[in-house]
Amino acid sequence: MGMALLRQGAGDLILAVATADATRGPGASSQVLTVQLHKPSKDARTGIVLTGGRGGDGQPPIVKELKPGGIAAASALAVGMTLLEVNGQPVLGHKMGTQLIKEAEGVLHVKARRAPSHLEHPAAPSPLRAAQTASLQYNIAATLATTLPRTLPPTPPLTTVPALTTRDPLTTTFQHRGEPLLVFRGHAVPFAVYEREDSIKIVISTFNLQSEVSHGEGPLCCTVILSLDETKRGHSSFFQCALRDDRFPEMYAAEPPLSCRVDIVKAAYISHNVELHETIITNTRVKIILAKARNA
């Protein structure tokens, strides 16, 4: 447990208390924190600025800024954390998170998850997961060598991507028409994946890209497996989205990339062909649109 003190008048007032969630197994206590804030009135400023979670899909928002002088500035909350709960209520989107914080009064319990780059002791992958990762890494690397256009600049070997070699890969399930859409996540984690009959849209937050680059976790690479057919787990679409800033060949920058190139890597015997259709870049989003066609 940690405490943060702000001097107010002649005495010290405890405004924030942080406790780690130790219920998720060995090494997980550093991932989720419950922060207790003292908000004397509804009008009191917490200083928490949120981003993301605006797509209407119930994704929790991310802490974008902690304004100086706000109540949360003295707490264990940090920029880049995902806001999970406020006073026991799950935060399902940006609007809900902002409203729960604004209307709270008195003791405010905030549960948040640190970003992967903030973990102090990443859990070592299990032998089975390590073997699966090595197999996937080999397949993608082999396909890269034979399918990418010759005009593209050399792609760094996938063995240099820390997320694929030093951490247990994160796996999440997005629901689509009642069926799971599995996503294997590496760098530049997508916060939303939408599947339509003829296309797939992957949405990545430029704030997440900025956070990863500022922590020196390049190259910016998102390795994704989309299992488009629940009955054919072995027939998934493998591809790699390599996000690079053309202004910085070394792929480390202090700002989000202004340009983006997506390299699609297809494995043999997949249930769908996917080809890059369009890349849309805004101040807050990188949207990757993939055209989808079932194999003959």
Automatic annotation (TrEMBL):
Q: Which residues does the UniProt record annotate as the domain PDZ?
A: 34-116
Pfam families assigned to the protein according to its UniProt record, in alphabetical order: PDZ
**According to the lineage, what is the superkingdom?**
Eukaryota
Protein name (database record)? PDZ domain-containing protein
To which species is this protein native? Haptolina ericina
